[in-house]
Structures are given as structure tokens and as C-alpha cells.
Amino acid sequence: MDPEVDLQQADDSPPAETTGPPSRMTRQQILTLISMASVNFSSMICYSILGPFFPNEAVKKGASQTVIGLIFGCYAVCNLIGSLIMGRYIVQIGAKFMLVAGLFVSSGCTIVFGLLNRVPAGAAFISLCFIVRSVDAFGFAAAMTSTFAMTGKIFPNNVATVLGSLEVFTGLGLILGPPLGGLLYQSFGYEVPFLLLGCLLLIMVPFNIYVLPSIEAEPSKDSFFLLLTKGKIVLICYVIFTLSAGLGFLDATLSLFAMEKFNLSAGYVGLILLGLSLPYCLASPLIGYITDKYPSTRRWFIVSGGTATAFGFFMLGPVPFLHIESQLWLVVFMLGFIGFSLGMTAIPTFPEIITCAYEQGYDEGLSTLGMVSGLFGAFWSSGMFYGPVVGGLITQHLNFEWAAAVQGGVALLGAFLLAVYYLCHPQQRQQSVRKDSRPTDESTPLLTE
């Protein structure tokens, strides 16, 4: 099978009539969806297995809470740098090669990370944690940047719907990672979770080489950082930052808090984290469909979701000045509330930035999609650095309750600023990405109408 053939047939076919029934997906689109779903699932399950047991293991190896936060945070810094580079040069590197190479690097790093328990405690262990996580971050940045860009290229009329559907598999990875990692750690020790899941990621490499299409495109002369001259894009990027900061904060601090406060084992902590991932997983496809069908709702999904996320963090501790006693059921409920609100906020942001880029006159092609993907990844990674590092510092010097409250304040500020912007620009025209403005070489059958 030649993946380029189906994609070319789709590109050369005449545009679908806007008044007719929606066209069915081509075989290549179905295979591409399967491929990207496998990338999201395998990448996120390998990323999320650390949460339940690694902080406790790192403490045994001589790492403080602040150092643990920095280990999580360095991943985000390198992911930020990698996202900017990969997003800018995706056309020159090639989207397919970038994705496959990123998977290969991530799988190798996951396996190596599972062998670090054999390293002596102290500086040697901590240093190798930083090195392996940093290299892994570049691989992850390559895989996810190309996934976002290829989604926008192959499904130009239904970006949010497809992204929302793919987030089901992202959510499944986040759901299965913590409990699976915790149970494997309890049963077999430190090495087995990383070795098993690293091999799973490695299997995805030949599969994606076979399935993914090769997309040809011309490099754009548009400026990467010109996107940040538009106020709405800056505010949306800040909201993206607050979302990932919250997730990063929970990765680095929640397991230790639950173990100390409720005397839970690593396996039970993994089950608690289901409360965060499951609602996000279930809400994302519906939110993606609604925001594609009614683009004007994107702005208020982002604002209301950000506000709800802030409330969830305020009540997660809960914040000390409320004088509410922390209870396990309340923690689980608030994690579910945060997971649902994260879906409300995150899914509409990517198509909203794409729309803004096209409104500024950017070319409607892979190069622009790569730049938007890189920008999204860079701000997401910035939050993933801020969350563990600042959250770890506040937790170490105060407590988890105050650290969660600070994270809620950061999310509330983003929702408030964006709401003020939208209220001051009520008549701003939202150009649709679905109509006649798209060149014929990107005309592909609709996923939904």
C-alpha cells in the first residue's frame, strides 16, 4: 500500500458540494486517524506512569520536593524548545519523518529511564534523570507537533472534532498510565513499568511508517513570532499555559499529598488520578463537535472552562481560608471536575488560534499549521515547567493546599483576561475555516457536517 496515493486522490478530487450530504472519510483518513490515535495513546501512557510512584522513588534516591519538580519541569523546558524548532521547520524536516523519529527517541528514553534505579543515589541519579527526561522531551515534541499539524492538514474542516476524538486516546493513556504504572511498580518493582511501556511505544514506529501519508508542502515566509502580535492569540496562549501548569502541578505533588494525607499506596494513588483523566476523555469529543458546528461558542467554552478549572483547584486542597477539612471523596470529586473543565477549555484553543492566523493573512497550508502547533506546544510546555517547579516550591515551604490555591488563581486570571477581551470585541468576525477560502490541494472529504 502506498499512503501517498490515497492522499493524492483526496487532494485531486473536486470539492464537495456544501449543500449536499457530508462525504465519507477516505481509507487514508481512517488509517491516519488510527495512526494518530496510537501515537496519542502510547505517548501519554508512557508519560503518565511516573505520577504515582516516581516522586516517592526519587525521594529515596536523595531528591528533594524541589528537585523532583525540576525533573518534571526540565521535560517541559526542552519540550518548549523542541516545539518551537519543530513547528518552524516541519516542512523542511517532513511531518511523517518528524513523527516517526520522535516516537523512536521517546521509546528509547522510556526504556533507559526504567534502568535508572541501578544508578547510585544522589548526584548521579538526579543528573541522569535530567538528561534522559530532556532527550525524551525533544522526541515527544516532534511527535505531537507533527500530529497536530497533520490533523489540520488532512481534516481542515473538522479540526476540533478530530482533535476532540483523538483526545479520547490521550485520555485513555492518562487514565491507564497511573494505575497501570502504580500496580506494576507494586508487583514487579521500578523497572518493569518503563520497560514494558517503552517497548509498546517502540512497536508504534514501524506501524506509523507503514500507515502515515507523506505530505509535501512549500515552506512559508510568514514570521513565527508575528502570531504573538495579536492580543487574542497571546491571551489564548496564556490560557493554554494555565491548563498545562495545573496538570504539571498535579503530576509532581498530588501523589505525595495523597500518600501522606490519606496513607494511600502507589496503586491507589493511580486510581485516584482516574478522576482527572476520565471526565476529560469523555468530554473532549462532544466539545470538539459542538465547537466545530458552532464556532462562535469557542470563546465562551474557553472562558467558562477556565473559570471552572480555577474553582476546582481552589476546592482541591481546599484553600486554607475556607476552613474545610480535606477529605478523600472531595479530592476525587474535584479532580473529576477539573478534568471536565480542562476539556472545555483546551479543545477549542487550537482551532481558535488557526482562525486568528488565517485572519492575519497566513498561508493556509502545512507550514502555518506547523507554526500554530509549535506555538501551542511551546506554551503548553511552559506551563508544564511552571506547574511542577512553582508548585513544588510552594508545597515544600507552605503546603499542598496553598499551592493548589495559587494554581487556581493563575487559571482564574487567564479566564478573566480573555473574557474582558471578548466583551470588548463583541463584533469581531470569526472567519470560518470550512468554506471556499481553502486551496483545492487541501480539499478533503468532511468528517462531519
UniProtKB/TrEMBL annotation:
<dbReference type="GO" id="GO:0016020">
    <property type="term" value="C:membrane"/>
</dbReference>
<dbReference type="InterPro" id="IPR011701">
    <property type="entry name" value="MFS"/>
</dbReference>
<feature type="transmembrane region" description="Helical">
    <location>
        <begin position="97"/>
        <end position="116"/>
    </location>
</feature>
<dbReference type="InterPro" id="IPR036259">
    <property type="entry name" value="MFS_trans_sf"/>
</dbReference>
<feature type="transmembrane region" description="Helical">
    <location>
        <begin position="368"/>
        <end position="390"/>
    </location>
</feature>
<feature type="transmembrane region" description="Helical">
    <location>
        <begin position="233"/>
        <end position="259"/>
    </location>
</feature>
<feature type="transmembrane region" description="Helical">
    <location>
        <begin position="30"/>
        <end position="50"/>
    </location>
</feature>
<feature type="transmembrane region" description="Helical">
    <location>
        <begin position="155"/>
        <end position="176"/>
    </location>
</feature>
<dbReference type="GO" id="GO:0022857">
    <property type="term" value="F:transmembrane transporter activity"/>
</dbReference>
<dbReference type="InterPro" id="IPR020846">
    <property type="entry name" value="MFS_dom"/>
</dbReference>
<feature type="domain" description="Major facilitator superfamily (MFS) profile">
    <location>
        <begin position="32"/>
        <end position="429"/>
    </location>
</feature>
<feature type="region of interest" description="Disordered">
    <location>
        <begin position="1"/>
        <end position="24"/>
    </location>
</feature>
<feature type="transmembrane region" description="Helical">
    <location>
        <begin position="188"/>
        <end position="212"/>
    </location>
</feature>
<feature type="transmembrane region" description="Helical">
    <location>
        <begin position="328"/>
        <end position="347"/>
    </location>
</feature>
<feature type="transmembrane region" description="Helical">
    <location>
        <begin position="402"/>
        <end position="424"/>
    </location>
</feature>
<dbReference type="InterPro" id="IPR050930">
    <property type="entry name" value="MFS_Vesicular_Transporter"/>
</dbReference>
<keyword id="KW-0472">Membrane</keyword>
<keyword id="KW-0812">Transmembrane</keyword>
<feature type="transmembrane region" description="Helical">
    <location>
        <begin position="265"/>
        <end position="288"/>
    </location>
</feature>
<feature type="transmembrane region" description="Helical">
    <location>
        <begin position="62"/>
        <end position="85"/>
    </location>
</feature>
<protein>
    <recommendedName>
        <fullName>Major facilitator superfamily (MFS) profile domain-containing protein</fullName>
    </recommendedName>
</protein>
<feature type="transmembrane region" description="Helical">
    <location>
        <begin position="300"/>
        <end position="322"/>
    </location>
</feature>
<dbReference type="Pfam" id="PF07690">
    <property type="entry name" value="MFS_1"/>
</dbReference>
<keyword id="KW-1133">Transmembrane helix</keyword>
<keyword id="KW-0813">Transport</keyword>
<feature type="transmembrane region" description="Helical">
    <location>
        <begin position="122"/>
        <end position="143"/>
    </location>
</feature>
